[in-house]
């Protein structure tokens, strides 16, 4: 008899209730995340979940697969790996996570349409109206349909607040496509003031900016025939982002601009780009790419919660089985968090540093806006696929768990590998990574860089920022000076 459990839990940060209100001075101007003073005074309010990071555990004993019913189908199979013939615990900590409590302080990004009892929901008015046009930029809401029927939302910022100079009566603006990571959406790029967020910096520098919202996030929850309440809507992993989403948005932007595209990806946005380019997809439409906090090889994720994960009681997470949509705000994961936070030595106040590394340069008001907007749903299958990278230490397509199922999907017993070294050696690349990033560990980035050892020397730029962690690359108050100016320079070559 098989004994098998698949645990998928999003370790959400908890709100903190203080004896008194925090002042901006108490929090500090750029580090609103933790202090001994607040930790002693705070108590956990576990009923109110804010945000956080993802854990995957796959436990195996015997030949067992997980399904919503007694009949195993290809949609429900999760790959299980055997270690020592008995047990495997696979940990996956992904993406951007932020502070457990909203920080006080005014926001220069206050035109996000998030405050006020009478306001329309952000989902109704869209990112353009709430976050771009109000800052003096032109913006268009665009919808693109993938070949497998998902309707993706994009925002186009065609020019800066001061239009770029014209040449012969025709404005010349290179397109830039910006892709977010998992469990967030395109709004994360726009939380800082206009002079500090990447899309508007690029627009003001004369670029035609396109922001992508991945399938399953709040602005891309439509399909030509499926509904998000149907499990079939969530039957995809990041393979489908490579095979369908990226080609759809590339084709749309290329056909509407007639120019090759500059690409920016953060976290998962780097993985799908690397996988796509390695297969030769989209490279004919690509001018250059900037990869921020790259997620590719994940062998050395060094989060402090690995030990906790290994010792966690797995029985409590069985309620998550059968959930096709992974909703970070759902009850099953918040219930599991309550159990984790009762463990001795577990610090549920300062999970940010434990999960992503200590971000150096986040503003309290930006974190506040982040918590009002994120996290977003993704598919459980997507997270299982990401966990496979950690376990197998290889960048490969989704593993269906049995040779016959892999044979049915791929024509071979093992899933095909994405060979990063196949990326054209003359493609201009900029890779920026941080020394404090617990998700994109320095050793994993070095392994990624080994894939580019034959890349043309003048086409590869690598930036190492000792003090940066995962969230600093998209919300850091000094990211413009340290990172974004480098991106602009690459795209202007």
TrEMBL record:
The keyword Transmembrane helix applies. Signal peptide: none annotated. The keyword Transmembrane helix applies. Gene3D superfamilies: alpha/beta hydrolase. Pfam families: Abhydro_lipase, Hydrolase_4. The chain crosses the membrane at residues 76-98. PANTHER family: LYSOSOMAL ACID LIPASE-RELATED (PTHR11005). This is Triacylglycerol lipase 2.
């Amino acid at each position: 008899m098989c004994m098998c459990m698949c645990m998928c839990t999003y370790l959400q940060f908890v709100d903190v209730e203080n004896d008194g209100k925090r002042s901006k001075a108490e929090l500090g101007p750029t580090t609103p995340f933790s202090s001994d003073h607040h930790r002693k005074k705070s108590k956990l309010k576990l009923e109110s979940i804010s945000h956080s990071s993802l854990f995957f555990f796959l436990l195996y004993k015997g030949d067992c697969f997980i399904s919503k019913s007694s009949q195993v189908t290809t949609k429900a199979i999760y790959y299980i790996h055997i270690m020592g013939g008995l047990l495997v615990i696979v940990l996956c900590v992904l993406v951007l996570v932020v502070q457990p409590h909203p920080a006080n302080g005014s926001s220069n990004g206050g035109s996000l349409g998030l405050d006020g009892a009478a306001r329309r929901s952000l989902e109704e008015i869209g990112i353009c109206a709430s976050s771009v046009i109000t800052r003096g930029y032109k913006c268009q809401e665009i919808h693109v349909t993938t070949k497998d029927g998902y309707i993706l939302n994009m925002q186009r910022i065609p020019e800066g607040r001061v239009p770029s100079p014209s040449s012969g009566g025709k404005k010349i603006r290179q397109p830039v496509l910006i892709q977010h990571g998992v469990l967030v959406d395109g709004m994360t790029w726009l939380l800082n003031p206009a002079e500090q967020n990447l899309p508007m910096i690029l627009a003001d520098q004369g670029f035609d900016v396109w922001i992508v919202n991945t399938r399953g996030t709040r602005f891309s929850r439509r399909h030509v025939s499926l509904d998000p309440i149907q499990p079939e809507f969530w039957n995809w992993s990041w393979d489908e982002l490579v095979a369908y989403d990226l080609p759809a948005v590339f084709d749309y932007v290329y056909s509407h601009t007639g120019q090759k595209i500059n690409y920016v990806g953060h976290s998962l946005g780097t993985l799908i780009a690397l996988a796509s380019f390695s297969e030769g997809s989209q490279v004919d439409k690509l001018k250059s790419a900037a990869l921020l906090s790259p997620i590719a090889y994940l062998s050395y994720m060094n989060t402090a919660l690995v030990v906790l994960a290994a010792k966690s009681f797995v029985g409590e997470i069985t309620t998550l089985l059968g959930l096709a949509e992974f909703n970070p705000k759902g009850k099953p994961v918040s219930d599991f968090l309550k159990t984790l936070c009762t463990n001795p030595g577990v610090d549920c106040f300062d999970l940010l540093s434990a999960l992503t590394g200590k971000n150096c340069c986040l503003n309290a008001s930006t974190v506040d806006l982040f918590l009002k907007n994120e996290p977003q749903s993704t598919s459980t299958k997507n997270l299982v696929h990401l966990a496979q990278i950690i376990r197998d230490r290889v960048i490969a397509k989704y593993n269906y768990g049995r040779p016959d199922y892999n044979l049915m999907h791929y024509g071979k017993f093992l899933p095909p590998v994405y060979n990063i070294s196949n990326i054209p050696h003359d493609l201009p690349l900029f890779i920026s990574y941080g020394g404090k990033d617990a998700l994109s560990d320095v050793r994993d980035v070095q392994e990624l860089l080994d894939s580019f050892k034959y890349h043309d020397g003048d086409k590869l730029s690598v930036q190492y920022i000792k003090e940066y962690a995962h969230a600093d690359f998209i919300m850091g108050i000094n990211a413009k000076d340290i990172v974004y100016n480098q991106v602009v320079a690459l795209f202007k070559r």
